[in-house]
Amino acid sequence: MSEYPVSEDDVVDEIAILHLPLDAWHRETGGRMVEFAGYHMPVQYEGIMAEHLWTRESAGLFDVSHMGQVFISSEEGVTPALEAAIEAALPVDLSTLKVGAPRYSLLLDENGGVLDDLMITRWASGFYLVVNGATKWDDIGTLRELLPDEVTLNHLDESALLALQGPKAFAALERHVEGDTPLESLTFMKGAAFKLGGVDAWISRSGYTGEDGFEIAIPAESAEHVADLLCGEPEVKPIGLGARDSLRLEAGLPLYGHDLSPETSAVDADLKFAINKRRREQGGFPGSDRVLRDFAQGTPRRRVGLVLEGRMAAREGARVLLNDQEVGLVTSGGFSPSLQQPIAMAYVDTALSAEGSELTIEMRGKKLDAKVVTMPFVPHRYHR
Amino acid sequence: MTRYFSEDHEWIEVEGNLGTVGITDYAQGQLGDITFVDLPAEGATVGKGDSVSVVDSVKAASDVYTPVSGTVAAVNEALADQPELVNTEAETGGWLFRVTLSDAAELGSLMDEAAYKSYVDSL
């Protein structure tokens, strides 16, 4: 037997593989370690299916410390000049971004292609970014080039990042936090500083599963303490990368390097909301000419969700057909544990991208019937 | 009846010139939750080492190679509704297909149970 590689991008030179702060903890906890984004990471503990369903019904703890945490600031503090510099680099509208609030944004190249997707949060002292693990070194280089010299860019590589996701995440976390505001004051896409088990933590109500949940930045040296504390709660189990991927797919959330790349734009990726309203009117960010043109004229293809007949999953790279003509490509696909049927994301011709559009996916010589559906595949349950 | 094992983690149990093929318990453990099994067509002619079946897990798809040459005599119809049998009964009820051997001498290149166990222990 041999497994098809997920993607050549995921194959990493042995020498380069790094260890996360929770490496030993994952091994002791029964995690099966694989190489991902240049790190040893747990792909699963008890099994992807069980971990996936546990997260949907209770709460799962994810180690996402491979992601890049970056702090952007200036000696003068948060000034109009700092905000202008960031707005020249990202299509975000900082005038509507409140202190503590994270917002989804995109790092674009000069042609409007997506270099990464990210979260940017306004802190009183500056701006906190979380970027993808596999792209963080390139992102830091790109941001450094885009930002003027007087803007400081710090890679917070002494900080671990955990995500606690699921309908019981709040109950489990609340037992261990103290702060100026109660944890319940955080609604979806809000964040604040807390003490978590005595440790300084930045907690936002956000995540990558479609469930209610939290993302938690803590000092790397406290990561084991916090992981033990949270997994000591009866609602919480550790969850690996495998279920993280199947959960985000069901939630309709794109994965960089698969559903997003320099070949995709914000508009064809169906991420118009990531280009904030004022910015799409005024431009003035990398690739804005192309982005504004895409908004005005539309794009030839669009990212859609597909549900498949039968049980055979479509995988990345599978061709989408109509009457034997190629009309698209699958960028993510797998078997949905919640729906018990295969689902996929694909870029298809815009004319065929409407809900209910009936298409065929070619997989290992077989033709699979598929239908376009509105994402998410599984409804979001954010705490708004 | 004699059972043989391949380095690709297939087992084959041979009775007369008919072999029953599946993946080993070790293999199913590595793959995780199996969601679909793509089986060969009955009557198909297969050559030793050919990819004749694909096992889909939540995570990935994996080829299954036939450990012997011959003709596909039967497939495990129960897997259509219960692919998880490959997880729960990998070396019994979760068999994949039966093949009528065209060259029994090919069995000589396979491992017996003890040899396979030490092979897995060395991985």
TrEMBL record, chain A:
Source taxon at top rank: Bacteria
EC number: 2.1.2.10
Catalyses which reaction(s): N(6)-[(R)-S(8)-aminomethyldihydrolipoyl]-L-lysyl-[protein] + (6S)-5,6,7,8-tetrahydrofolate = N(6)-[(R)-dihydrolipoyl]-L-lysyl-[protein] + (6R)-5,10-methylene-5,6,7,8-tetrahydrofolate + NH4(+)
Annotated substrate binding sites: 215
Enzyme class per UniProt: transferase
One of the protein's GO biological processes: glycine catabolic process
Key words of the record: Aminotransferase, Methyltransferase, Transferase
Every Aminomethyltransferase C-terminal domain range: 301-378
SUPFAM superfamilies to which the protein is assigned, alphabetical: Aminomethyltransferase beta-barrel domain (SSF101790), Folate-binding domain (SSF103025)
UniProt-listed InterPro entries: GcvT, GcvT/YgfZ/DmdA, GcvT/YgfZ_C, GcvT_C, GCVT_N, TrmE/GcvT-like
MF terms (GO), sorted A to Z: aminomethyltransferase activity; methyltransferase activity; transaminase activity
Pfam families: GCV_T, GCV_T_C
Gene Ontology CC: one annotated term: glycine cleavage complex
Start and end residues of each GCVT N-terminal domain: 23-277
Family membership noted in the UniProt record: Belongs to the GcvT family.
NCBIfam families: gcvT, PRK00389.1, PRK13579.1
Protein name (record): aminomethyltransferase
TrEMBL record, chain B:
Cofactor binding remark: Binds 1 lipoyl cofactor covalently.
One biological process term in Gene Ontology: protein lipoylation
Assembly and oligomerization: The glycine cleavage system is composed of four proteins: P, T, L and H.
InterPro entries reported in the protein's UniProt record: Biotin_lipoyl, GCV_H, GCV_H/Fam206, GCV_H_sub, Single_hybrid_motif
Family the entry assigns: Belongs to the GcvH family.
rRNA processing in keyword set: no
Annotated protein name in UniProt: Glycine cleavage system H protein
Keywords associated with the record: Lipoyl
